[in-house]
Amino acid sequence: MQLGMVGLGRMGAGMTKRLEQHGVEMRSFDPNVASTAKTLRALAKQLDAPRHVWLMVPSGKITEDSFQKVLQILEPGDTIVDGGNSNFRDSQRRYKEARKQKIAFVDVGVSGGIWGLEVGFCLMVGGDKAPVKRLRAVFEGLAPESGWAHVGTAGAGHFTKMVHNGIEYGLMQAYAEGFELMHHSEFELELSEIAGIWRYGSVVRSWLLELLHEALEQHGDGLDAIAPYVEDSGEGRWTINEAINENVPVPAITAALFARFASRREIDFSAKVQAALRNQFGGHAVKAVKAAQKRPT
């Protein structure tokens, strides 16, 4: 089995190594690091027909540009796999574009992060049965036992990964709020110890909790070296948009996304409004803004 990997970042590099360890003959292209090919066209020439090219690049413009370039290079019977965090609507469109040229398109939601090389990657695969069957050795090499599935037609892989990441937002927020409460409690709790014991027998044990325990051990219970600023990849937003489209309530995921937004606010203006109103109608005291907290003008 041969596979061409486009993108050798944190995920792509680990996936390439794991596949090599499982006997897949790998070829690669990444303009920023050492790879087997210097161009996408050169990569295609390194592969025997029918070719299988896996895109593992950031979602958005980079993925779109890479897809369009590979689509023009490959030939009927070849397969393009998108393993990035693409919007499933884009994957459905790309499937149709590829099909017009008799090229297969498979969308794969990939979870596993930097640990995937060691423990395997969970794979959610969308697309037609024939190309998925041809790629079975690749999926089995990447995933741990029982860690991959053909979840549906084109777009289903990325849709499932979108929901997966939405759930992840909610889980992370629940842990964050619970540990925030313990951090401020009167008991002077040792958070790393509590995270440690919750890993064994507790109903809230999980891999995320194991990672939190490691972070607390590494940075200390106050996590003093880490700024209180949380980004989002976009998939939480997509999840909420689809929930609105389907009239499905997702309050936990929505609250988790909004909490990330709140973390990026140097000064929460809505809180200022509330404080000002309490002062106006009830005479409640307001706190003055310290010079260091003022926004630059």
How is this structure best described in words?
- By secondary structure, this protein is α/β, with parallel strands linked by helices.
- It is built from 13 helices and 7 strands.
- The protein has helices spanning about 10-20, 40-45, 60-75, 90-100, 115-120, 130-135, 135-140, 155-185, 190-195, 205-220, 235-245, 250-265, 270-280; strands spanning about 1-5, 25-30, 50-55, 80, 105-110, 120-125, 150.
- α8 packs across α11, α8 (about 155-185) crosses α12 (about 250-265) and α9 (about 190-195) packs antiparallel against α10 (about 205-220).
- The termini are far apart.
- Mean pLDDT is about 95; it is low at about 290-295.
Please give a quick description of this structure.
With 297 residues, the protein is an alpha/beta fold. 49% of the residues lie in helices and 12% in strands. The protein starts with a strand and ends in a 15-residue tail after the last helix.
Residue runs with pLDDT of under 50 for 5 or more positions = 291-297
In round numbers, the mean pLDDT is: 93
How do the strands line up in the largest sheet? Answer: 2-1-3-4-5-6-7
The outline comes out as: elongated
Strand runs, count: 7
What is the string of helix and strand elements?
EHEHEHEHEHEHHEHHHHHH
User: Rg, please?
Assistant: 23 Å
